[in-house]
Design goal:
This protein is α+β, with helices and mostly antiparallel strands. It has one domain. About 25% of the residues lie in helices and about 25% in strands. The protein has four helices and seven strands; from the N terminus they run αβαβαββαβββ. The radius of gyration is 13 Å and the shape is globular. The model has no long low-confidence stretch (mean pLDDT about 95).
C-alpha cells in the first residue's frame, strides 16, 4: 500500500511504531465499507473541515482532554479515520488498544479525526475545539 506523504494515517502509524504500539492501516474496499457503515449509522453533521457529530453529542474540550481521553476507552481496537479527501480517502488506521491512542496522537502533528470500534458502537469526532462523542462510550 502506498500512502500519500502527507497522509494522517501514515503519520499515526509512524508515531505508533516509534512508541512500540501495535497498529495497522487498512485501505480500499474494507476501509471504505467501514467508514460508510459508521457515517450511515451516526450521520455526523460535518465530515470535512471542522468535524462534528450533532448538537446532541456530548462534548469535552480538546485542549484539556486530547492527551488523556482515550484512557477511558475499552481495551479493544480503535478505528481512526479522517476527511475523505484524496490523501486519506478509504483509509483507516487501527490501533490494537484504544486506550493508547492519546499517546500516539501526542507524538504526531495536529489533526482532526473520527474514532469508532469494530462494532461501531460509538463515534468520536476530534476537532480543534472539542471532542464530541455519541453511542456506547463515556469519556468523562
Amino acid at each position: 500500500m502506498k500512502l500519500h506523504e502527507f497522509s494522517k494515517a501514515k503519520e499515526l502509524f509512524r508515531s505508533a511504531t516509534e512508541l512500540s504500539i501495535d497498529a495497522e492501516i487498512i485501505t480500499d474496499e474494507i476501509a471504505r465499507n467501514y467508514i460508510k457503515k459508521v457515517f450511515e449509522k451516526y450521520k455526523p453533521g460535518k465530515t470535512s473541515g471542522h468535524f462534528s457529530i450533532s448538537s446532541s453529542a456530548r462534548r469535552i474540550p480538546t485542549d484539556e482532554y486530547e492527551s488523556s481521553f482515550s484512557r477511558n476507552l475499552k481495551e479493544e481496537k480503535a478505528y481512526v479515520f479522517f476527511e475523505q479527501n484524496q490523501i486519506d480517502k478509504n483509509t483507516v488506521f487501527i490501533i490494537s488498544d484504544a486506550r493508547e491512542l492519546s499517546k500516539v496522537i501526542e507524538n504526531s502533528f495536529g489533526m482532526e479525526y473520527f474514532i469508532s470500534n469494530q462494532e461501531t458502537s460509538y463515534l468520536i469526532a476530534v476537532n480543534w475545539y472539542s471532542i464530541e462523542y455519541t453511542g456506547e462510550v463515556n469519556l468523562n
